[in-house]
Amino acid sequence: MDYNRYIDSTILAADAKEEAIISLCKDAKEYHFKSVCINPTYIPLAKKTLEGSDVLVCTVIGFPLGMMSTASKVYEAKDAVENGADEVDMVINIGKLKDKEDDYVKEEIASIKKAISSHTLKVIIECCLLTDEEKRRACLLAKEAGADFVKTSTGFSKWGAKVEDIRLMRETVGPDMGVKAAGGIKSKEEMIQLIEAGATRIGTSHGVDLVK
């Protein structure tokens, strides 16, 4: 199996310098990863560095807490695609989900999807903060709102991707929607287990190590 094309090779650290982003992009080109996932400020740099390759530029919106207003997330998403992002990974408003304000959560996702049109939208639900019932509800809201993927984690909370969460998410959204595992994936064995459980994309800052 070509595991390389599952990988969103990621640097989201606040202290990431330009040289780290350039190196990330060069590795992504060499190893034919699906995308690089970087903070919005580095979208133009990543786009330029990846020119001539089939590696996509992915960025994060409302990151990492998801507690911004819908309007601010929509603006951030539109700005991201205007600057060259191919894919957007947004964080839901977790507090609103826990308060059972499902219409708010769904409408926010739908608004961002509308703002970015045909670009890929992945919805980060932050599994480590949710009950199984909340995970299922978040996944269904994302699907109903027209998102392309659901995603486990930001990698900035209590823990990251777990096989049991991927299995639950896949069972909830069915066979056709994307499911992205992200957060703390450091070994090829972990990656394979997550893919076997239903992940169709792997977000990791250890991409090269996983495919070597």
Structure commentary:
This protein is of the alpha/beta class and about 210 residues long. The chain has one domain: TIM Barrel. About 45% of the residues lie in helices and about 15% in strands. It contains 9 helices and 8 strands. The protein has helices at about 20-30, 45-50, 70-80, 95-100, 100-115, 130-145, 165-175, 190-195, 205-210, and strands spanning about 5-10, 35-40, 55-60, 85-90, 120-125, 150, 180, 200-205. The chain has an 8-stranded parallel barrel with strand order 1-2-3-4-5-6-7-8, surrounded by 7 helices. Helix 3 runs parallel beside helix 5 (about 100-115), helix 6 (about 130-145) packs across helix 7 and helix 7 (about 165-175) packs parallel to helix 8. The longest helix is centred in the middle third of the chain and has 15 residues, at about 100-115.
State the gist of this model.
The protein is built from 9 helices and 8 strands.
Topology:
Layout: E1 7-11, H1 18-31, E2 35-38, H2 43-49, E3 56-61, H3 70-82, E4 87-91, H4 94-98, H5 102-116, E5 120-124, H6 132-144, E6 149-151, H7 163-173, E7 178-182, H8 188-197, E8 201-204, H9 207-211
Parallel strand pairs: 1-2, 1-8, 2-3, 3-4, 4-5, 5-6, 6-7, 7-8
Keywords:
212 residues, single chain, alpha/beta, TIM Barrel, 9 helices, 8-stranded parallel beta barrel
By CATH, the architecture is named: Alpha-Beta Barrel
Report the CATH superfamily. Answer: Aldolase class I
Number of domains: 1
Mean pLDDT comes to 97
CATH class: Alpha Beta
The N- to C-terminal Cα distance equals 13 Å
CATH fold annotation: TIM Barrel
Strand tally? 8
Note the beta-strand portion. 15-25%
- In spatial order, strands of the major sheet run 1-2-3-4-5-6-7-8
**Cα-atom radius of gyration:** 16 Å
